[in-house]
Amino acid sequence: MREEIVRSEAGELWILHPHGEAVPEVTAGARGDGGKKLQVLLLDASWSQAGGMLAQVQHWGRRVRLPMSGKSRYALRAQNGDGRFSTFEALLFLLEARGETEAARRLRLQFELHVYAGLCARGRKAEAEAYLEESPVREAFPGLIAEFARRRPNFEALERAGTKTKREKSE
Questions:
Q1: Which residue from 10, 9, 4 is spatially nearest to 39, judged by alpha carbons?
Q2: DSSP annotation string for 92-156
């Protein structure tokens, strides 16, 4: 199974885990590994499942932990307290630790937009609005955020009530 996942020509393998060795901090644009190629294995599972996965793959590479602090921004899951980050957020921290700040910034915008859209889709409007207060998304995507806020007709409710929509009336 290792051969299917890890490519020997692609360099060292890091397995991200909170109990690994510390990754050296690097300055923006610099790489702490001398420019060597790097592979990263992200264990995407619940905390207990990730422990079982780690037991199976820990001998494949170097177990490392990232400098991650604060509160998770992934408001769509129940386990988003201090120090409990999603796999996606771990990827963002990795990019930042490796000095890939622009890639991390752009990916974070997409992540925050995903969370905001998820809150809206679940009808959690007050949470979505509160989320935007601490998010760069409103400034980065003002037109898109305005579209999320626009009220749309509930076609299912109109159908149940026997009300014709403008589209049906024109047909």
A1: 10
A2: HHHHHHTT-HHHHHHHHHHHHHHHHHHHHHTT-HHHHHHHHHT-SHHHH-HHHHHHHHS----HH
Residue with tokens 């014709």: 164
Tens of pLDDT, residue by residue over 114-125, are 999 999 989 899
One-letter identity of residue 131: Y
Taking each helix axis from N to C end, the angle separating 101-121 and 125-133, rounded to the nearest 10 degrees, works out to: 160
Rounded Cα distance between 102 and 95, Å, is 9
On average, the pLDDT of the chain sits at: 81
- Does the model's pTM come out above 0.85? no
Phi, psi of 80 (to 5 degrees): -120, 35
d(CA 107, CA 129): 21
Give 140: exposed, middle or buried? Use CB within 10 Å, 0-12, 13-18, 19+.
middle
Q: Residue 116: name the closest of 125, 128, 108 by CA.
A: 128
The span from the CA of 18 to the CA of 36, in Å, is 23
73 neighbors 112 (Cβ within 8 angstroms): yes
Residue 165 in this model has a pLDDT that exceeds 70: no
